[in-house]
């Protein structure tokens, strides 16, 4: 009888041995926690498809920020749910817009907590698209116009930086958005504000619950003329490369779970930090299965987040951040 010489099981014999040779470690330092801020007072409205995630008015935001700080999470990503929308998304770049107000409040309460502003227009436009709508003179079709959208995006980014945002995260997928924002920030004296670019953002069905949460569903058509085709990976390299040339400081892949190969590709090709966005439907699926008793939520979440890191993510934007932080500390 020939016995195996290589025995991979030797290093799996005990918890201590497994910990000794573990390759990937999740840390609370890696997490970014998204928050939805809205107008009014005393608003804490749970998003039906995202249990545990709320629309919060500024007066109740403080409690949530305290919970974030207690958890050890060091960064939040702000999404605004405005009370007025128009064709040009003007509440996105209003100095008193909801994101700007929330940013100022958070930086006053907890200056050490990093505020990342999602820079997009779709929550603020009445048509729900991420840019300006023009009618193509040849076809008469409505389209999202690239270069005029950039101007609005730059105004949004600058007003977010003026409010105190530590990081600008542009997500609208117009060509040249990083370069335009970099120039706009620099001209306004914000040359030290980093850009976390949603470099590789797919036209995904996994944003459904978010769009319900942020009231940002496009009123006509879809986002396929600006967000990427889920079938493409090499194109992701072109998107990332363009962003790097234009001055991006960090790259993002979104969604995460169905795109772990793309996270790995970016990590292998470029030296910039790579963020994974563990998006809304990825969260909703876990929550729904857990509520039915079909999965062990804690184990599934930690395994999933570990998988994103193993694939190459340096940072993870996740609605599970506060729970995961607690679980990493060994709490129930
Ligand atoms: C805005 C934006 C979206 C998400 C983040 N920023 C929605 C979209 O592109 O339709 C989705 C996040 C999530 O699903 O958790 N453009």
From TrEMBL:
Keywords: Heme biosynthesis, Lyase, Magnesium, Metal-binding, Porphyrin biosynthesis, Zinc
Subunit structure: Homooctamer.
Gene Ontology CC annotation, any one: cytosol
Enzyme class per UniProt: lyase
NCBIfam families in the cross-refs: PRK09283.1 (NF006762)
EC annotation from Swiss-Prot or TrEMBL: 4.2.1.24
Catalytic activity: 2 5-aminolevulinate = porphobilinogen + 2 H2O + H(+)
SUPFAM superfamilies linked: Aldolase
Cofactor: Zn(2+)
Binding site for Zn(2+): 120, 122, 130
Membership in a protein family: Belongs to the ALAD family.
GO annotation terms (biological process): protoporphyrinogen IX biosynthetic process
Zinc is among the record's keywords: yes
Annotated metabolic or biological route of this protein: Porphyrin-containing compound metabolism; protoporphyrin-IX biosynthesis; coproporphyrinogen-III from 5-aminolevulinate: step 1/4
Binding site for 5-aminolevulinate 1: 211, 223
GO function terms (MF aspect): porphobilinogen synthase activity; zinc ion binding
InterPro entries per UniProt: ALAD (IPR001731), ALAD_AS (IPR030656), Aldolase_TIM (IPR013785)
SMART domains (UniProt xref): ALAD
Binding positions for 5-aminolevulinate 2 per the UniProt entry: 280, 319
Record: active site: 201, 254
Residues reported in the UniProt entry to bind Mg(2+): 239
Taxonomic superkingdom: Bacteria
Entries under CDD domains matching the protein: ALAD_PBGS
Record function comment: Catalyzes an early step in the biosynthesis of tetrapyrroles. Binds two molecules of 5-aminolevulinate per subunit, each at a distinct site, and catalyzes their condensation to form porphobilinogen.
Descriptive protein name: Delta-aminolevulinic acid dehydratase
């Amino acid at each position: 009888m020939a016995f195996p010489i290589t025995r991979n099981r030797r290093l799996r014999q005990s918890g201590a041995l497994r910990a000794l040779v573990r390759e990937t470690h999740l840390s609370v330092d890696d997490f970014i926690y998204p928050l939805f801020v809205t107008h009014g007072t005393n608003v804490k409205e749970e998003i039906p498809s995202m249990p545990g995630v709320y629309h919060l008015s500024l007066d109740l935001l403080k409690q949530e920020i305290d919970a974030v700080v207690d958890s050890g999470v060091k960064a939040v990503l702000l999404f605004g749910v405005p009370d007025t929308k128009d064709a040009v998304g003007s509440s996105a770049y209003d100095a008193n817009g909801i994101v700007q107000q929330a940013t100022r409040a958070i930086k006053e309460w907890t200056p050490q907590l990093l505020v990342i502003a999602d820079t997009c227009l779709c929550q603020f436009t009445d048509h729900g698209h991420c840019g300006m709508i023009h009618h193509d003179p040849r076809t008469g079709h409505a389209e999202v116009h690239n270069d005029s959208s950039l101007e609005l995006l730059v105004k949004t980014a600058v007003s977010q930086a003026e409010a105190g945002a530590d990081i600008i995260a542009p997500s609208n997928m117009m060509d040249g958005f990083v370069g335009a924002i970099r120039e706009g920030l620099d001209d306004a004296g914000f040359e030290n504000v980093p850009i976390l670019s949603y470099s590789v953002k797919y036209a995904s069905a996994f944003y459904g619950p978010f769009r319900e949460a942020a009231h940002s569903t496009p009123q006509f058509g879809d986002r396929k003329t600006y967000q990427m085709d889920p079938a493409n990976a090499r194109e992701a390299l072109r998107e990332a490369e363009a962003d790097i040339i234009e001055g991006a400081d960090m790259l993002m892949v979104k969604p995460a779970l169905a795109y772990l190969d793309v996270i790995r590709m970016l990590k292998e090709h470029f030296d910039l930090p790579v963020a994974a966005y563990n998006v809304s439907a990825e969260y909703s699926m876990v929550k729904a299965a857990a509520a039915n008793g079909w999965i062990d939520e804690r184990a599934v979440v930690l395994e999933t987040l570990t998988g994103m890191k193993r694939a190459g993510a340096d940072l993870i934007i996740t609605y599970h951040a506060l729970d995961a932080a607690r679980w990493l500390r060994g709490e129930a």
